[in-house]
């Protein structure tokens, strides 16, 4: 038996209520003051509860994907079986981001221990530092974004297989089957997919191979259309029999090389064969009594979370009134410094600094001390590093799973851009990523967003490009949560705010995910705020402190699960979604 929560709700105010017009709020406050009432904002009651059960939980960006994960749990699989099946279905029904032609990261907490898997793409062997520059040494955005020259070596085929191989309980073909059957028998095009196809029509039309599938007759399929992907189904069938070599070697590897050559790419079959996922040590830190583990380099995500939390704890952020300008100011100032440090980061093989240095007490003390509690520090005064990457993205997707034994998986995958580089490889049926754009095409010079990254993230053969993906788990006293988000550079701030809502303010899981969010990434020097995130008086106070504020439609899409001390589980999908959270009522009863 399952319970299902499809989320299309509008995020509410950070204060836990649907934002009313300012005038109405003023009247309410006035009446309360007159009546001598202390207004205490109902932090839980105003939000719906997360779905809750006893056998396992899945939250992902697509209903079919969440259902596949739940099916694995129902068959006796664990959180890893559920996560891999969910990710593979996302590669079929959410081709904008779910993938076998991209990469990602997974954080697993299994039997009380944490493991992190890096299956981030690498630069092909023929990549060069100047490959995305014009004759004058300026980055040419088109080259690192469109077509297979923009593609890093896909890591998902080996990554998902490796994850399952180490921890999965169910046979590999069982875990691949839901994706294979959906590709073979068909799935219904969602409204989001129809919208994204329409938005990407020009990109998809650049490649006849892609257009033949996704723009039949020149038009994307409408929402509600049943679509079959027989090439992808055949690939998944081979993958279920032979593992990653079915995608990265043999005829599929040759087809990928051919498509890459035809469109001017440097990706070769030898690159595909050489790719290896890497088990890494997690970034670990303590936050308000919780243990937190997240992804280390080549993702900046864990370091950004750890640095921000470290500064905030030093400044006793939790003592400030929630939703007030002083608390928001400190949050922003901590992010400003953490993102400035991001400039130093890149592939751990060549990066000059590491998590240990940036999370050392001495560095966190120094960074925290530099924060003025009353004034915004202009970003150009925060270290010598003038840049960090930007951009909201629907091309990354996050899923979280939990099983009846309390194990959790937090897994984020990406193609980088919507439908990656736009090329769907004929005969293979997968989109290639455009992850090369996550490198600093020209270190020290602005990229197409006007932003600058460091030498540690320059293009080099075999190197992994710096990411912001932040799959995270946290635990305390028998409780465990797993969470993460898509959203490019906004991933760490979205993930951190959901985590803070939960561990500092004791929000319910759904409220922690739902509450409106802020973002700051050092450069550009401004706060991005969701429409309901700041009360007018808070925004005014922040401006008086020297902050610039821009309203943006949404910041990230967090999908989270939680294991309670009595073994019940919860799942919460982000209302910014679509996201789908389900629990399955199997396994042992709550203690
Ligand atoms: N492609 C987005 C990221 O890895 O951060």
Helix and strand layout, with pairings?
Elements (H helix, E strand, L loop, with lengths): L1 E6 L14 H13 L16 E3 L2 E5 L2 H12 L4 H15 L9 E8 L2 E7 L21 H5 L10 H12 L4 H14 L1 E2 L2 H9 L1 H5 L2 H7 L11 E2 L2 H13 L2 H4 L1 H13 L6 H6 L3 E3 L2 E5 L2 E5 L6 H14 L10 H18 L12 H4 L2 H9 L26 E8 L4 E7 L57 E5 L2 E6 L6 H13 L5 H6 L3 E2 L7 E3 L6 H9 L4 E3 L7 E5 L5 E4 L6 E6 L7
Parallel strand pairs: 16-17
Antiparallel strand pairs: 1-20, 2-19, 3-11, 3-20, 4-5, 4-12, 5-8, 6-7, 9-10, 10-13, 11-12, 13-14, 14-18, 15-16, 18-19
The chain binds glycine.
Glycine binds next to loops.
Quick tags:
591 residues, alpha+beta, eight-stranded antiparallel β-sheet, seven-stranded antiparallel β-sheet, 20 helices, disordered N terminus, binds glycine
Short description:
With 591 residues, this protein is α+β, with helices and mostly antiparallel strands.
**Which residues sit in consecutive blocks of at least 5 with pLDDT less than 50?**
1-11, 16-44, 384-392, 587-591
**Rg result:** 23 Å
The overall pLDDT, averaged over residues, is: 90
How are strands sequenced across the largest beta sheet? 1-20-3-11-12-4-5-8
Mind summarizing the main beta sheet?
8 strands, antiparallel
